[in-house]
Design goal:
The chain has about 100 residues and is mainly alpha-helical. It has two domains: about 5-70; about 75-103, no CATH class. The protein is about 55% helix and about 10% strand. The protein has a two-stranded antiparallel sheet with strand order 1-2. Helix 1 (about 5-35) packs antiparallel against helix 2. The longest helix is centred in the N-terminal third of the chain and has 30 residues, at about 5-35.
């Protein structure tokens, strides 16, 4: 079973673009900080841009996990040929739930 991942892919692309932009800003701030001795970029601004990049990286990882969850994968290899118990029916110990045939 597969859920449409288009919205998650679009959202991840937006955050990837934001991440690239924020990485460039962070790298520029580092270069300005290293090249000037008068402290044009404050330490607080440098840390803020660093943490924005970290936040963007985390958001991209979260979006990737959403995309991975769009495909539901069974923990077995085979095909369900008969469902014995459905949702709401009682399943005791050692009762079969379904029949699985190897592919």
């Amino acid at each position: 079973m597969k859920i449409d991942s288009t919205p998650y892919v679009a959202q991840m692309n937006v955050y990837n673009g934001k991440l690239l932009n924020d990485v460039q800003i962070y790298n520029r701030n580092i270069q300005i900080r290293q090249s000037s001795n008068d402290g044009v970029i404050s330490n607080q601004d440098l840390l803020t841009s660093k943490y924005i990049v970290i936040e963007d990286q985390a958001q991209v990882k979260l979006d990737k996990s959403y995309i991975d969850q769009c495909a539901v994968k069974a923990p077995f290899d085979g095909k369900v040929t008969n469902i014995v118990n459905y949702t709401g029916s009682g399943v005791g110990s050692c009762n079969e739930i379904m029949d699985i045939t190897a592919i």
